[in-house]
Amino acid sequence: MSNVLLVDDDPESLGWLTEFIKGEGYSVATADSLRAARIHLTRSTPDVVLTDLMLPDGLGIELVGELESRDTTEVVLITGHASVETAIDALRSGATDYLVKPVDIERLRGILQRIPKAEHFRQEIGELRNELRKLGRVGHILGSSPPMHRLYDQLSRVAPTSASVLLIGESGTGKEVVAQSIHDLSRRKRHPFLPLNCGAVSPQLVESELFGHEKGSFTGADRQHHGFFERANRGTLFLDEVTEMRPELQVKLLRVLETGTFMRVGTNEHISTDVRLIAATNRSPEKAVAEGRMREDLYHRLNVFPIYLPPLRERGTDIELLAEHFLAELNEQEQTNKRFSPAAIAALYAHSWPGNVRELKNYVHRAFILADDVIEPDHAPENSLQKSNSSVITIRVGTPLDEVNRRVMEATLMECGNVKRKAAEMLGISLKTLYNRLAVYNAGKEDLYDEEDAEEFAGGASEDEGRSSSTNGLR
Length: 475
Fold this sequence. Notes:
- By secondary structure, this protein is α/β, with parallel strands linked by helices.
- It folds into 4 domains: 3-117, Response regulator (Rossmann fold); 124-308, P-loop containing nucleotide triphosphate hydrolases (Rossmann fold), CATH 3.40.50.300; 312-379, Helicase, Ruva Protein, domain 3 (Orthogonal Bundle), CATH 1.10.8.60; 401-447, Arc Repressor Mutant, subunit A.
- Helices cover 45% and strands 14% of the residues.
- It has 20 helices and 18 strands.
- Strands 2-1-3-6-7 form a 5-stranded parallel sheet, sandwiched between helices. A 5-stranded parallel sheet has the order 11-12-15-10-16.
- β1 (3-7), α1 and β2 (27-31) form a beta-alpha-beta unit.
- α13 (318-334) packs across α15 (356-370), α14 (342-350) crosses α16 (401-415) and α17 packs across α18 (431-441).
- InterPro entries: AAA+_ATPase (IPR003593), AAA_lid_NorR (IPR058031), CheY-like_superfamily (IPR011006), Homeodomain-like_sf (IPR009057), HTH_Fis (IPR002197), P-loop_NTPase (IPR027417), Sig_transdc_resp-reg_receiver (IPR001789), Sigma_54_int (IPR002078).
- Residues 141-369 form the Sigma-54 factor interaction domain.
- It comes from Aromatoleum aromaticum (strain DSM 19018 / LMG 30748 / EbN1).
């Protein structure tokens, strides 16, 4: 049986809340002050701490710091001072949810039902940690660059909570994938995840999509429709391009977030819902507020936990990692064994990828279709990768030297049209050293060089014997 610690200095509230929680099948311990609550926490670890904000000897939110394990205990704050600022402060301080007095019974019941059995939650935490241990993968997200590791750290902290999340990033950076991963790593994973792109739906239909409508509420409404907030109950709702939402709808969205209730179009009946909201935008939210495209109060309510998604051009070797991943998926689907040539890999790094991961995935798919066995830079419509400036490559600070050497060599080969003697001269190394390095970089790949290459190598290697590759070679 899950157990709840109820902290409130009002005997009447303490009494009826205790009876209600017991009636829902939970054991309840009570405390009427911070001191009494702290004493209880030294003796046992509850599944939920349900605490009033204002207590005789301090603030209930201080109990967050008293918990030995933040992984296995939820803190839900009860406040009589309902405001956006109060809610944000509570969630940022570590509370996983909050209730406004007088407490809404259905909302409290939803919070209690969300509590997983102890063994289930330990399993979920273990799953999350195992994901983090895997090289370059968390949930549905792939990447091992430093910006992605920072993203993984943020996800591991926010996913187990009920805090609203605002994803900020360029188009194609994978905002919906990140939102799905947050849901899958959260306590709501067994309930629905519903995405809605506010910019892709007619402004006149967004309200109906969000809140639903009654039959006959407008022309064409020939039946009752359950909206996203109703269908996503106890789950997660992802609103992409939230700054495209009309101001009057933003007011209604804010009301749902603050009260946990909404009304279908065409009725005055309030419907309760327990939904975690993840919003996203490819605009600067601060600029959207300044331009009047987004309400400031809604921005602050959504911005409890902002997450910046790095563009692909800032993710270093993730470009190659993702390209190889997409190619491996296609090879598995089509039962083929296609691969990238070194020049194609160099072209990937040379491109700026304004469309980010989405553009890269589309390119790999097109190149896969056009290539026979080996994907070359020209295996794309209009030679899209060759249009980028291949004489300049971007390397992040901290990139391992071996990786720097490989990328410089492959980019130089591409610049020289894969003429290896010319590339060796540009790099200031012997032709033999160039081939040796290519052999290392392409270990295990067939067709490292063709007969013409072999003749070139044989003809030039002897004159290079006197040159010291250890002195002039790439480091």
